[in-house]
Structures are given as C-alpha cells and as structure tokens.
C-alpha cells in the first residue's frame, strides 16, 4: 500500500537520496531524459537533512521503500545549496501579481521524483495533494523551476495547477521555466 507522509527518519532521507541518484540526468540516456524526465541537483545527506530540519520533505512510500518525493525549501535555505543560489536571487527580480517573488511567503519545491516503476499511476498528483495539505496554510504558494528540456515534468506540473511566470537561460544555455502553484484565493 502506498502512503504519503513527511520524511522523519535517516532511512527515509537515505531513500530520497537513492531515488535521486537513480534519476540524475547524467546517469540516463537521452531517450530516458525525454520520455521519463530527470532530476538536476545532487544533494548530500547533510544538505537534505538540513532542509528537512526547516520543513520536512513530502515522501511516497510503498511499505518502507521511498518511491517518490517532493523536497521542501524555504527562504531560510537561500544560501545552503550553491547551485540553487541563482534561483533565490531570481526571486528578488521576478514579479508575480505585481510583487517580487521574494516579497511573498513561498515554499520552493526543491526537487520532485517518482520512481521508475511507479510512474503513470497518479502518485505525483497524490504527493502534490499531500504537499498542499501540509503547507498551504503556512505559505502563499509553491514555486519551482523546470528545465524546458524536461517536458514530462513541465507538463505534469501544469496538470497539477502550476502556472508559468518567468523563463531564463542559464550560462549553459539551458532554458528554465519558473512556475507557481498559488494556494491563496486569488481573484
């Protein structure tokens, strides 16, 4: 039976890292990247645990095995993961509904992954439903960025309710799409 909860144990954090390692772009074929998606950032256990100490990550488990996750990052983590510092700096410039993103109380979806054998079963949707239930009373919205060359992830996030608010090219000429899932009653 699949359950949805927050990460609370060392074994669960290690399960996130195992799933992450199996889905990093550099370990996948071009066909897998296009059809199945990929993750970009490789966290250390210490980084993952530090983030989890601020807001616990959402995980999907099949028995004791972590089969999916949505990482949670707050503005307090702004400088903790060097590769993500430019994302937080972008929040200081990009506007959403007339205010800079950094002026909101937001939660960054630090990374999303569903294990290969569990994709296409609605698990991502259930993870996001649990994520919203866990965090929507504390934060205005969830925000993340997705590489344009990761269409599976981009389309899945749009299906969930994320809306594009900004795009840019990084120094490697990868286009990143910033998306927001607004949890407030916006008129």
Entry summary:
The chain is α+β, with helices and mostly antiparallel strands and 187 residues long. The chain has helices spanning 10-22, 30-36, 45-54, 85-91, 123-135, 151-160; strands at 2-6, 58-62, 65-73, 95-96, 99-100, 106-114, 141-147, 163-169, 175-182.
Features:
single chain; 187 residues; alpha+beta; two-stranded antiparallel ribbon; 29% strand; globular
Question: What this model shows, in words?
Answer:
There is one protein chain. With 187 residues, the protein is an alpha+beta fold. It has 6 helices and 9 strands. It has a 7-stranded mixed sheet with strand order 1-2-3-6-7-9-8. Strands 4-5 form a two-stranded antiparallel sheet. It is globular, with a radius of gyration of 16 Å. The chain starts with a strand and ends in a 5-residue tail after the last strand.
Draw up the topology in text.
Layout: E1 2-6, H1 10-22, H2 30-36, H3 45-54, E2 58-62, E3 65-73, H4 85-91, E4 95-96, E5 99-100, E6 106-114, H5 123-135, E7 141-147, H6 151-160, E8 163-169, E9 175-182
Parallel strand pairs: 6-7
Antiparallel strand pairs: 1-2, 2-3, 3-6, 4-5, 7-9, 8-9
């Amino acid at each position: 039976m699949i359950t949805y909860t927050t990460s609370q144990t060392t074994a669960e954090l290690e399960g996130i890292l195992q799933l992450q390692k199996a889905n990093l772009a550099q370990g996948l074929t071009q066909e897998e990247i296009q059809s199945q998606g990929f993750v970009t950032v490789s966290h250390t256990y210490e980084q993952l645990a530090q983030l989890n100490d601020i807001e616990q990550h959402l995980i999907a488990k099949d028995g004791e095995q972590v089969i999916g996750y949505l990482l949670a990052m707050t503005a307090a983590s702004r400088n903790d993961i060097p590769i993500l510092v430019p994302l937080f700096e972008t929040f200081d410039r990009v506007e959403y509904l007339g205010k800079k993103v950094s002026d909101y109380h937001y939660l960054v979806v630090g990374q999303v992954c569903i294990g290969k054998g569990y994709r296409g079963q609605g698990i991502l949707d259930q993870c996001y439903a649990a994520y919203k239930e866990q965090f929507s009373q504390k934060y205005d919205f969830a925000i993340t960025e997705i590489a344009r060359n990761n269409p599976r992830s981009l389309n899945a996030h749009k299906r969930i309710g994320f809306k594009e608010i900004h795009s840019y090219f990084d120094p490697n000429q990868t286009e990143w799409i910033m998306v927001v899932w607004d949890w407030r009653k916006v008129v």
